[in-house]
Design goal:
Helix 1 (28-36) runs parallel beside helix 2 (58-73). The chain has five helices and five strands. The chain has a five-stranded mixed β-sheet with strand order 1-2-3-4-5, sandwiched between helices. The chain is globular. It has a single domain (4-115), classed as 2-Layer Sandwich (Transcription Regulator spoIIAA), CATH 3.30.750.24. It has 117 residues and is of the alpha/beta class.
């Protein structure tokens, strides 16, 4: 059962991936494979929009750390879109993910963060 929906936009700096729904143990491996498949050679990185993600468990947090690490190894960057009001923001902050990955409030800010690289 897939409880998260993924949609992708293309930007010349890299993909913009929107995830809505829940990220947990039941779907984190599939999401990891789907998202890592989108990593582009020569791009600056990826914007991962979690604005409509309603739940994030420890396997979801691990997924985000893994994606960030994979991109960093390629000299690229992951930027997370997590608004101040997002249900999952507290999880992101408590796990110190925001120390590793820049957090922005909008997709436009995410694209600007990639442009600044």
């Amino acid at each position: 059962m897939r409880i998260a929906e993924v949609s992708i936009e293309r930007d010349h700096h890299g993909p913009i991936v929107h995830i809505s729904g829940e990220i947990d143990l039941s779907n984190s491996d599939t999401l990891r494979a789907d998202i890592l498949e989108l990593v582009e050679d020569g791009g600056r990185g990826m914007v991962l929009d979690l604005s409509h993600t309603s739940y994030l468990d420890s396997s979801g947090v691990r997924l985000l750390f893994d994606i960030a690490q994979r991109l960093q190894a390629r000299r690229q960057r992951l930027v997370l879109v997590v608004s101040e009001e997002a249900l999952i923001r507290r999880v992101v902050v408590l796990t110190k993910l925001d120390d590793v990955v820049p957090l922005v409030a909008t997709v436009a800010e995410g694209i600007a963060a990639l442009e600044a690289l």
